[in-house]
Amino acid sequence: MLRRFLDFCIDFLRKKGCDFVNFPSPLDFSHSDGIFIQENDFLIIPSLNGEINADEFIGRCSDTECIRQAKSMHREALEEAKRWFSIASDFHFRLEEIYSRAMNFEKNDEILSQKLIEIKNILENSR
């Protein structure tokens, strides 16, 4: 989640044409471990526990443009999350539709009833 946030910040800053310095991860150069925004002297870097609190992040911004960008990034991230949940929901219902058509619920109920009778018989005979 943290890496996605930093990668999202980099993409956002590039789109906005901001000057920044990326600190790539030494283990995976395709991800970032931190970002320094030069025009605001603002550093985005994970805390020691590896978390970024969005409210704390926005609260640290002293520049109104920085606050506006942080809020915009937050809004865009929420919209993207909603979009992915919608896609996942759509796939879930498609899969459920396929499963429902392929499933023989009557046969399933019949087998369940038989197994319950068998269990009941075993329990009664073991007394």
Could you give a quick summary of the protein structure above?
The protein has 127 residues and is mostly helical. Helices cover 65% and strands 11% of the residues.
Structure report:
The structure is a single chain. 65% of the residues lie in helices and 11% in strands. By secondary structure, it is mainly α. β1 (20-24) and β2 form a beta hairpin.
DSSP E strands, number? 3
Query: Would you identify the regions where 5 or more consecutive residues have pLDDT less than 50?
Result: none
Tell me the helix content.
55-70%
Question: Numbering strands along the chain, what is their spatial order in the largest sheet?
Answer: 1-2-3
Q: Topology as H/E string?
A: HEEEHHH
Shape descriptor reads: elongated
**Number of helices, where a helix is a run of at least 4 consecutive DSSP H or I residues:** 4
| Separation, N- and C-terminal Cα atoms | 56 Å
Radius of gyration: 26 Å
Whole-number average pLDDT? Answer: 80
User: What fraction strand?
Assistant: 5-15%
Alpha-beta content class: mainly alpha
How does the major sheet shape up?
Answer: 3 strands, antiparallel
